[in-house]
Every structure is written in structure tokens, then in C-alpha cells.
Specification:
Layout lengths: L2 E2 L12 E2 L10 E6 L3 H5 L1 H10 L7 E5 L3 H12 L4 E7 L2 E7 L2 E4 L7 H7 L6 E4 L8 E2 L4 E2 L4 H8 L7 H15 L5 E4 L6 H16 L1 H10 L5 E4 L7 H9 L2 E2 L4 E3 L4 E4 L16 E2 L3 H25 L5 H6 L1 H15 L11 H12 L8 H5 L2 H19 L4 H14 L16 H11 L4 H4 L2 H4 L6 H17 L1 H10 L1
Parallel strand pairs: 1-13, 2-6, 3-4, 3-8, 4-7, 5-14, 8-11, 15-16
Antiparallel strand pairs: 5-6, 9-10, 12-15
Helix pairs in contact: 4-6, 5-7, 6-7, 7-8, 10-12, 10-13, 10-15, 10-16, 12-21, 15-16, 16-17, 16-20, 16-21, 20-21
Length: about 500
């Protein structure tokens, strides 16, 4: 029988399951984290847990929080097991399990976010961190500036004490902290965004400025928003993962599986103190941008290169995509010929070596990471991970044929059917709009590039636009295999 996970049952877990060696009752909070999904619990939470295992930084435990309906369900599940999480490492050489105990509470999720605002206003909270997905920062894709016209933002401007968004709640809490003399906190973005700290700062300060310009000035002068690069492949949890945790003898309502690799590079810019994450393997660096660029372009961009053809060709997993004769070869050629030329080395790692590392990680047969999950939210991921490389290639005169093919494959995927005739269920926050454009682009490919909010002026760049039109027409006329073979043989 699997043992129900809780503080009381930690001593009863099977001997091969690692668990906290520290006294969790001695932990006190220092970080409030918004967005308690799998990635946070396998990454940032794990680094803090590793510090606690060394008896360090025990006043930096995590208080969980959220602003969506999903978060209420997560809160109930987490509190029922004392905020513990089982992490299962999927290494080709063998699986292992570890219970992580760095989170100690979860704020009530309520309309208007009153409990969240109140908790962030308390002096023990010195860092407010977020993982809310790349598309969650209210960025206008046409300008990369703040989207002040979004209905959520308009609501928060009109209702500053009962906001809908995490950022409105942060602004409300900072107003209280300023007025009470508690002082600022650090805002720490943990999402896959280039310059993620700067983007978080843009969102928070811009929203504050629409409400109270003096408060916006105070936030700019006193709060810090460090940039960081986060990396760990963390699949979604489904029936397979739920069965796997029970195989370890644990009854955990929210287990997480992950690969045997983690990286966290952080700008050391914390206005109210921070844990010594470097003592748990993180890297503090003044050049986070170089690490970010390498990872976002090669890993995250590489995910987009393979996940869309995987969906079209009914290849269910990223491992399967890498084993596929054509999709795996597409990854190799696009990475080495079209992405690597626009990536600089970082200490201890060249772009070529990083491509090989990513190839190995994507090829881990133990990681059941679906093409569908990786292809999700292409409307944010393609502009963030792929199109900047296209622009660099056009400016430098380097090849962009493969990247044009990648964009054509995305357009084909968004039409909503696979080549075997099965339906691709909606997989983007703006799926209906994308699908309408994709169907129209079947007969007139250029209409896809005319989505200015995504592509800007790329429809007006003849070298890229002509290649895109050629590939999308070929995909529809001859099939994805034919297009991939034509590119690989060129």
C-alpha cells in the first residue's frame, strides 16, 4: 500500500526515497511564489530544499500562491499533504525519488486577491517570485511593450485594491509596504523569457504608473527585478506519472517528474536579501543574457523546431521526435546551420557543445514529454524563441530556409488536423484566431505572415517570406515528409 504523503509519514516512506533531513517546523518564510506548477516545484523549490538539507537559509521557505481557479485546486491538494512534493528523476540509468519540503504554506485563493495582497505586504516576504508562463506578462507582441489595453489590466487600473492579476496584487502590496514603512521586495521572474526580470519590471511599473505615478517612481527606485535563466525539462503529470509515484510506495496527489539536469543562472540584484542559491548549484552572473540567449535559442527554439512536425506526423513525444529520421535530422541541421551562428559561448560551454547536450536531453527515453505540451502556446513561443534568430539571420545574410520551414510547419499544425486525419485539439490561448488564419493560408500562404502582432515586418522581407510561402505550399501539396526531405537534401 502506498503511504499518504505528509509530515507525519515522512519517517515511514520506503528507505530508497530521499526526504527532508531538516526540521520543517524550524522553517520560516521569506519567498512568496505565484504559480505552483510542476516547473517551479522541480526547479526553484528544489534548489531551496538543497540549501535546507545543508542547514542553510532556513528563513527563506516558500509560501505558495495563485490567482486562477486552477490554483484553488492545487492549494487544497498541497495543504492536504503539508505542502510536500515528490520529485521523480528520470535518468536513463535509473529512476529515483525525493520528497521536497521547502514550501510551508499556500495563500487562500480569493476573488480580488485580498489574502494574496495581505500576505505580500508582510515584512517576512522579501522576494515575490513567479512562474506564470511566457505569455502571462501582458506584453504587446507588436511593440514588446506593456499591453495597457488588455481587459485584465483595465480592470486592475479601475480596481487597484481588488485586482485580477498577480501584477495588480503585487502593486497593491507594494503600495501598502511603502505606506507602512515595511519597504520593498524583490520581484523574481522564473519564466523562459529573454530579460525576464526586465519584463517583470516593465509589467509591474507600467501598471503602477497607470494607477499612481508616485508609487511607480517608488517601485523603480527601491525594488529590484533580477534577470535569470532557468532550465529543467519537466513533463506534465498524467496517469503514467501518478502510477509511477505509487510504484515508489508514495500516495502523492501532485507528484512531479523531471530530467537529470538543472541549471539556474541569476543576476545578483536583490533589494531585500536572498538565499545562498549558489551553495546549492545555482550560478550568480553579471552576464545572464548570454546564458539566456544560448538556452532560449537552442533549447526552447529547438523544442519548437521539432514539436510542430511531431504533432502533424502523430509523433507523440519529444523522444520520439528525436528518433524520427526526418524530424531528428531537421533539429540537427537547423540548430547547427541557422541557430548556432547567432549564439555566443558562455563560460565552460560553446554553442556547438550545448546543441549536443540538448540533443542528449531531448533523446532521454525516460522523459515522456509530449509534442503537444511543447507545442503549446506557439503564439508566445515562436515570437520569443524562433523569430529573433530569423531577424538575426536576415541581417547577417546567413541561412533562414530551415527556420522558414519551421514557421510553415507551425502554420500547418494550427490548421488543426494531423496527416493521419486525426484532430489536433486547441493548443494555444488564441487557437481560434490561429486556426482561421491557418485555414486561409492553405490557399494563400502569405496571410499567415501578415499576422503583424506575431511577425511584425517579416512578411515584407523577401528572402524569408518567399521561403515560407514555398514550404507551406509544398507541405499542403506533397506532405510534411516531402518538405522535410527537400530541405534536408538541399
Amino acid at each position: 500500500m502506498a503511504i499518504k504523503l505528509s509530515n507525519a509519514t515522512l519517517p515511514d516512506l520506503p528507505e530508497d526515497v530521499a526526504r527532508p533531513t531538516y526540521d520543517r517546523s524550524k522553517l520560516s518564510p521569506g519567498i512568496l511564489h505565484i504559480g505552483l506548477g510542476n516547473f517551479h516545484r522541480a526547479h526553484q523549490s528544489w534548489y531551496l530544499h538543497r540549501l535546507f538539507q545543508q542547514g542553510l537559509c532556513m528563513d527563506w521557505a516558500i509560501v505558495g500562491a495563485g490567482v486562477r481557479a486552477y490554483d484553488s485546486t492545487m492549494r487544497e491538494k498541497m495543504l492536504a499533504q503539508d505542502c510536500l512534493t515528490t520529485l521523480i528523476e528520470l535518468d536513463p540509468s535509473g529512476r529515483s525519488a525525493e520528497v521536497v519540503g521547502s514550501m510551508i504554506d499556500y495563500v487562500e485563493v480569493a476573488e480580488g486577491n485580498g489574502p494574496l495582497i495581505a500576505r505580500m505586504s508582510e515584512p517576512d516576504i522579501r522576494i515575490v517570485a513567479l512562474t506564470v508562463t511566457e505569455g502571462g506578462y501582458y506584453i504587446d507582441p507588436a511593440t514588446n511593450g506593456f499591453d495597457a489595453q488588455h481587459p485584465d489590466i483595465k480592470h486592475d487600473v479601475a480596481n487597484p485594491e481588488t485586482p485580477k492579476t498577480a501584477f495588480g496584487a503585487m502593486v497593491a502590496a507594494l503600495r501598502r509596504r511603502r505606506d507602512s514603512g515595511v519597504g520593498p521586495f524583490t520581484g523574481q521572474c522564473c519564466d523562459n523569457l529573454q530579460g525576464n526580470g526586465a519584463i517583470l519590471q516593465q509589467t509591474v511599473v507600467s501598471l503602477a504608473r497607470l494607477q499612481d505615478p508616485d508609487l511607480a517612481d517608488w517601485i523603480e527606485a527601491n525594488c529590484t527585478f533580477p534577470n535569470s535563466m532557468v532550465d529543467c525539462i519537466v513533463p506534465a503529470t498524467g496517469p503514467k506519472e501518478m502510477a509511477l509515484v505509487k510504484d515508489f510506495g508514495i500516495d502523492d496527489a501532485v507528484p512531479v517528474t523531471h530530467e537529470n539536469f538543472r541549471q539556474w543562472v541569476i543576476e545578483d540584484n536583490f533589494c531585500a536579501g536572498r538565499p545562498d542559491w549558489d551553495k546549492a548549484g545555482a550560478t550568480f552572473s553579471d552576464d545572464v543574457h548570454a546564458y539566456e540567449t544560448m538556452k532560449i535559442r537552442i533549447l526552447n527554439g529547438g523544442h519548437q523546431v521539432i514539436s510542430d512536425p511531431g504533432e502533424i506526423l502523430s509523433v507523440e513525444t519529444i523522444y520520439g521526435c528525436m528518433q524520427h529520421e526526418l524530424i531528428g535530422a531537421l533539429f540537427d541541421k537547423v540548430e547547427m546551420q541557422e541557430i548556432v551562428p547567432h549564439v555566443h559561448p558562455v563560460p565552460g560551454m560553446t554553442p556547438d557543445a550545448y546543441v549536443e547536450l540538448i540533443r542528449q536531453r531531448f533523446s532521454n527515453p525516460e522523459i515522456v514529454d509530449t509534442s503537444r505540451r511543447v507545442a503549446f502556446d506557439g503564439s508566445s513561443r515562436h515570437p520569443g524563441f524562433v523569430l529573433p534568430v530569423v531577424r538575426d539571420g536576415l541581417a547577417a545574410g546567413t541561412p533562414v530556409e530551415g527556420l522558414a520551414l519551421v514557421e510553415a510547419l507551425w502554420a500547418r499544425m494550427c490548421e488543426g488536423t494531423r496527416e493521419d486525419g486525426t484532430v489536433i485539439e486547441p493548443n494555444d490561448p488564441v487557437w481560434d484566431a490561429l486556426q482561421a488564419k491557418a485555414k486561409e493560408a492553405k490557399d494563400r500562404p502569405r496571410v499567415w505572415l501578415e499576422m503583424r502582432q506575431t511577425y511584425g515586418d517579416l512578411a515584407d522581407q523577401p528572402r524569408f517570406a518567399a521561403a515560407f510561402e514555398k514550404w507551406l505550399a509544398m507541405i499542403w501539396a506533397d506532405g510534411t515528409d516531402a518538405a522535410l526531405r527537400t530541405y534536408l537534401e538541399s
